[in-house]
Structures are given as structure tokens and as C-alpha cells.
Amino acid sequence: MHSQPIALLQWPLPPDASQHGPALDHHLYLNLWIALALLALAHLILFAGLILRRRAAPHKAPRRQALIEYLPLLAITLLFAFLGIRAERLWAATRYSGADLSALQVEVTGVQFAWYFRYPGPDYAFGRTNPALVEPGAGNPLGLDPADPRGADDFVSSTLVLPANREVDLHLHAQDVIHGFSVPALRIKQNAVPGQDIHIHFTPTTPGTYAILCTQLCGSGHYRMTANLQVVTPGEFQQWLTEHGAPR
Questions:
Q1: Distances (CA, A) of 170 to 47, 106, 109, 187, 198
Q2: Cβ contacts of residue 107 below 8 Å, gap of 6+?
Q3: Which residues face 50 on adjacent strands?
Q4: CA separation for the pair 215, 180 (Å, rounded)
Q5: DSSP assignment letter at 77
Q6: Which residues are bridge partners to 202 per DSSP?
Q7: Residues 126, 217, 18, CA angle at the centre, nearest 5°?
Q8: First vs last Cα of the chain: how many Å apart?
């Protein structure tokens, strides 16, 4: 549970299993508490005006009138500017700065209506793909080109398996339409767009199994476009790679 000033007024959130998640949660709670405070203040002013109103409003000096009208407006403008800049900095930390060179590379491909996850082999390089070779029924859902030797040790999984406490750099792709790659428990959401290679990096921290969703209406089977993310210990991850013939 998140420790907040008033336990009875908590807004429950999904479990947080990423390194960057607490900062996002804190900013969300800050927005909610500020919104609640402004709502309470507006109602207090409204009730005070109804209770203390006078039959004839006294004449206010222009300076006092400006102070009453513009000072609250200035305060609210500065407050929202602060929240906007703070949110932009949180966004930039994961979107505008690249992943560490030692980050684990995984390719994520969305296709109606499934997610596929490709891992490079010991050469740490992804092989070439060819849309003409896409044939899920033959075990080649991504169209891996057998003529490219770099792809000989690549393997594709329907489950995203990641080691805890190691940075991950995801390469997001889409074969057909826009798909929304989302893992609520890791506070991750990024669209996968056909023809684009979009990167998003993060560090999972808590072992467990988490839901991967598609947040874009991608067709009649959108509701069932889900997958699982398994965060495991580094030792378990190495064992999993060995089972797939890609130890490193």
C-alpha cells in the first residue's frame, strides 16, 4: 500500500513492479490531492459567499479588486505550470533518453490479435525479417529470413520473460494496424506503429506474472489481444535462455 496522509482517502493502484513506477505514482497522487484541495476550497468560498453575503455590495478599490481577481488566477497558473513541467520531466526520463548499452534487447511485435517477443541469440543481433515470409501456421509469425545468418539464433516467444533489476530496451513493431503495448503493473504504455521502430526502456524490479494489454481498438478480436510478462530472477532468466538455446 502507498503511504498517504489520510489512509481512508486512498486511491488504490495496481501493484508497482518497475523502477520508474513510484515517481509516476507519486505524481498521480499529487495531482489527485491538489484537485481535491481545489475542489474543497471552491466549495468553501461558495458557501462563505452564500452565508456572508450583504444586501448591498460595498465599493472595492481597483487595487483590491485586481488583487482578488488576479492573484488566485496567477497562483493556479503557476501550480499547473509546475505540474506540467514535472510530468514532462518524468516522461522525458523514459522517452527522450536512451537505454544503457548493457540493457537487454527484446523485440515486441503486435499483430491482430497477438503479441510476439523476439530475443537475439549469443550474437546480440536481430536477424532480418521479410513480410512475404510471415506464416504463423508454419512457425514463422514474424517472417524471419532464413537467408540472414544473424537470425539463425533468434527465437520467438509468446510470453515476455525478463530478469529483475536489469534494464530492458524494447523495440516495438506492428505488422498491420496500430497496437497499444501496455503493462499497467509496470506503468508502461506505448503505441506500436506499422513501419516504425519505437523504443521504450525500463527496469522491472519485482518477480511475478503481469498482464500485457492492447490499448488501441485494433479490430474485432481486440478484447483477446493479451499476453503475459514474467519477471524472474537473473538465475531463472539464464536458465530460461539456455532452454531456448541462447545462453549468455
A1: 53, 5, 10, 14, 8
A2: 117, 118, 119, 126, 170, 171, 173
A3: none
A4: 4
A5: H
A6: 168
A7: 55
A8: 37
- The Cα angle at residue 220 between residues 194 and 216, in degrees rounded to 5: 45
Q: Is 34 helix (H, G, I), strand (E, B) or coil?
A: helix
Closest C-alpha among 117, 95, 216 to residue 161: 117
The whole-model pTM stands at 0.78
Interior/surface letters 66-99, b for 16+ CB within 10 angstroms, e for the rest = eeeeeeeeeeeeeeeeeeeeeeeebeeebeeeeb
Query: Residue 102: which residues within 8 A CB-CB, separation 6 or more?
Result: 167
Q: What is the C-alpha separation between 178 and 110, in angstroms, rounded?
A: 8
> How do the residues of the chain divide into helix, strand and coil, expressed in percent and rounded to 5?
40, 25, 40
Report helix angle 21-51 to 62-95, nearest 10: 160
Provide the strand spans (E) within 65-111. Answer: 104-111
- Could you say which DSSP state residue 159 is in? S
Question: Which mean pLDDT values do the consecutive 10-residue runs of the chain (248 residues) have?
Answer: 48 82 86 89 84 62 69 86 87 79 93 94 88 88 90 91 95 95 92 93 94 94 94 94 71
The number of residues making up the chain comes to 248
